[in-house]
Amino acid sequence: QVQLVESGGGLVQAGGSLRLSCSAPGSFFSIGNMGWYRQAPGNQRKLVATISSDGTTNYSESVKGRFTISRDNAKNIMYLQMNSLKPEDTAVYYCNRVLRVTTMTPGTFVSWGQGTQVTVSS
Predict the structure, then answer these.
(1) Distant-in-sequence, close-in-space partners of 98: CB < 8 Å, separation ≥ 6
(2) Alpha-carbon dihedral of residues 105, 41, 122, 20, nearest 10 degrees?
(3) Most CB atoms within 10 A, among 58, 62, 74, 108?
(4) CA-to-CA distance for 90 and 29, rounded, in angstroms?
């Protein structure tokens, strides 16, 4: 049973920054494309950033230029550096697999973690 653990969320003012972390078991983490998803109240979960096992990245238009995804395969950790945060970034953020980085295609998922809440005040 793969267990994903997200952390680093919090309350921040618009324009501020946060860094999220995602930890996962080594064998799962090192071979897979991974991504950050977010789900705002009343909305579907959406993929916002992706990274391949060799470091290729891609972003949704809503976060491009503000968010940076990275990973440390040796430590089995993935990060999401979020700068210039906006109230519309408020959501629960999750990490999970990504089927294809270049096309921002979600899947194939393992069990979702608890997520980490990000709240951006105006």
Answers:
(1) 32, 33, 34, 35, 47, 50, 51, 104, 105, 106, 107
(2) -50
(3) 58
(4) 26
| Residues 84-110 pLDDT 10s | 999 999 999 999 999 999 999 998 898
User: With the C-alpha atoms ordered 118, 26, 97, 2, is the resulting torsion angle positive or negative?
Assistant: negative
DSSP state of 6: E
Stated as kind and residue range, the H or E segment containing 58 is strand 57-59
Contact 63, 81 (CB under 8 A): no
pLDDT of residue 30: 67
- H or E, element range at 39: strand 34-39
Question: Residue 94: enclosing H or E segment and its boundaries?
Answer: strand 91-100
The two tokens of residue 86 are 């906006």
Residue whose entry in the numeric block shows the structure tokens 């959501």 = 91
DSSP label at residue 32: S
Chain segment 48-81, per-residue pLDDT in tens: 999 998 899 999 999 999 999 999 988 899 999 9
